[in-house]
Design brief:
392 residues; alpha/beta; seven-stranded mixed β-sheet; 13 helices
């Protein structure tokens, strides 16, 4: 039964509170905009004695994740946070954490990558690491950022999974904007997440193990097969623990959030905070007689291909909205994933891919209406279906 406390908070505040309630043994972190207030708030929790986490201040993001790998290998529950160039600086260590099957939870405040230097929101940082073996969640709101973070610990440490998780929220839009939020009691979160019992800790001297060992080709390939199997399993584990948390809180947790797709002629697939803008315009368009639906994946890795194909199957045309590009490819990263999902599940609905909101560019109502107008032409077969930039 839910026992929620309602108040006004930012996404970063909510993530910091969620990590505090999950009570990690170690947090190693380095500040970077727009994530900094997550670790600032957490450092205050440590200083005030509200948690007993060993807070490790390091000289870089690469060192932060390296320290997290060491702590997790030793058997600790571990958390960290970063953004943008910080996540890029961690790149060398990201696949190491995944390959060693370490259940680290890392928050990322999604922000563009240089150059030019820019601190606005887009998804180029997180899309740059989408193939590194980490589970990836996207929050639309501060409330979802809180819920996603709590579920992340439960999923990462589940022995059917044992993979690191990136719980992400859009920089400034979600990380810094104030929203009405609910926070559950500390005991409720503690009971849900439970105690972490590491499977093969380095510090268990009675059962010596090796971590991060060298592997020849056959063994290396087997390790990747096992990692892939764990990632594939994690989708059902995410759904299981998400529904269990939803039962505690009374708040929904779906792998893919859908709005109006039951009878929609035109569907738009989008990640993160801008979904609310698109949903708002979709409501207006429905009042004008245009049936529009919105599909928002809450889970991005593993990619919920079947659920997205199912949500789009009745549409006359689909727009896939990417807040980053995949330079040199025919589609942006989300576009490629959605079109692959359509192909895999035998869906032949015409689709068009857009890149929008780069570097924090505004998402306007007129932009959404332009996309729907394009979809009407796509459905008729009279539109150019190549990748289109909406900001330029």
């Amino acid at each position: 039964m839910s026992n929620n406390k309602a108040f006004s908070a930012t996404g970063n505040q909510m993530v910091a509170e969620a990590i505090r309630q999950c009570d990690p043994d170690v947090m190693a972190a380095y500040p970077i905009t727009p994530q900094t207030t997550i670790v600032e708030n957490y450092a205050k929790f440590v200083a005030a004695g509200r948690v007993h986490t060993e807070f490790v201040t390091v000289e870089s993001e690469h060192s932060a994740l390296s320290a997290c790998v060491g702590a997790s290998s030793a058997g600790a529950r571990v958390a960290t946070a970063t953004a943008s160039q910080g996540l890029a600086y961690m790149w060398e260590v990201l696949p190491i954490a995944a390959g060693m099957r370490l259940p680290i939870v890392m928050a990322n405040a999604n922000r563009t990558l240089a150059s030019p230097i820019n601190i606005g929101c887009d998804h180029s940082d997180i899309m740059g690491v989408r193939d590194s073996g980490w589970i990836i969640l996207f929050a639309e709101t501060a409330q979802e950022a809180y819920d996603n973070t709590i579920v992340s610990f439960k999923v990462a440490e589940d022995r059917r999974v044992l993979l690191p998780v990136l719980t992400t929220l859009d920089g400034f839009i979600t990380s810094h904007a104030m929203e009405r939020c609910e926070m559950n009691d500390d005991q409720q979160v503690k009971d849900f997440v439970g105690d972490y019992e590491p499977l093969y800790p380095l510090l268990d001297t009675n059962n010596p193990v090796g971590h991060g060992m060298y592997a020849n080709a056959p063994e290396f390939a087997k390790s990747r097969v096992n990692e892939r199997a764990a990632m594939d399993r994690s989708l059902s584990v995410l759904e299981e623990h998400g529904k269990a948390w939803s039962k505690v809180t009374g708040r929904p947790f779906e792998l893919v959030d859908t709005w109006g797709t039951e009878d929609a002629d035109y569907v738009m697939v989008i990640l993160g905070s801008a979904a609310g803008n698109f949903r708002h315009v979709a409501r207006q368009l429905r009042e004008e007689g245009v049936k529009v639906g919105i599909v928002r994946p809450r889970v991005y890795r593993p990619f919920p291909a079947e659920q997205i194909a199912q949500a789009c199957k009745g549409a006359k045309a689909v727009a896939v909205m990417d807040r980053s590009d995949s330079m040199g490819a025919a589609c942006g990263p989300l576009g490629a994933d959605v079109l692959s999902a359509f192909y895999t599940h035998g869906l032949t609905v015409p689709a068009k891919n857009y890149v929008y909101g780069l570097g924090g560019c505004d998402v306007s109502n007129e932009m959404v209406r332009r996309v729907v107008a394009d979809l009407e032409k796509v459905a008729e077969g009279s539109a150019d279906r190549s990748l289109t930039y909406l900001d330029a």
